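Input (ubiquitinyl hydrolase 1):
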Amino acid sequence: RGEISDEVSSTLNALWSGQYRSISCKDLKNAVGRYKSSFRGYEQQDSHEFLTILVDWLHEELNEIRVKRPLKEQNNYGIPDEKAAAMAWEDYTDSNKSVIVKLFAGQQRSCLRCAVCRKESVTFEPFFNLSLPIPPSNSQCSIMECFQLYTKPEQISGWSCPFCKNKKGASKTIDIWEVPPVLVVHLQRFYNDGIWRKRLNMVDFNLNDLDLEGVVKSKKSLYSRYKLYAVSNHYGTMDAGHYTAYCKNAEYNKWFKFDDQDVMEISGNEVRSAAAYILFYTAIDYQAPPVMQD
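Output:
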């Protein structure tokens, strides 16, 4: 009913009004907690889970299409990828049209190749953020290594091929087909090998020019180069941790650290750390539309 959108709007207006030294977004938290019980208390929660839910809710509330229809089943065998991707995107946007889709929605290509007949079953699906694995054996890696691991083929056992009906499995590959104006990258630091653990790897990432030309597969992609504007950091463990944020003020061209009610200027060299958990990028070539005033 628009409640979450109203609370996000009120929070943003308060942040940018210049009237307050700091604000506490209790109303937004309480509103989210009413619809998602895991966020009602004051135990530590996962910021990626919160972000995913929040963006999805904002899209649903702001969706201009009020009567949605189920997505068509994709059967792309023999159809060129560019055409199949365009058909899938048109099908999705026929029922999903919002400012959230315009800013955050990208598209990825999922391919299953039969181990016997080698034919491929290809589907295209949207995403609002990318959740990248971290190479487990390296104490330090680059974000491009995380992208490479994300798109690395994996073996799927027991898959039934729709072409030859064989069940000997397939190799699965996920490719990033199209990237949005605002690219949100989640680093998968938490994993479960019987108990929940956290990877403390230092992931080196680009601040001023993240070039994804070799990662994005569509030849018609509008964007490939990005600049970082914010980082969500997580310190500690699953049970006891603390979040901070690094954000770049475009007006002053300076980075700031946000730690609860405390804000301080930092240098760009301090933005990279082993605590980085979610990275927020904007396309270098993207021109945001002017903000409409009431």
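The longest strand covers residues 225-236.
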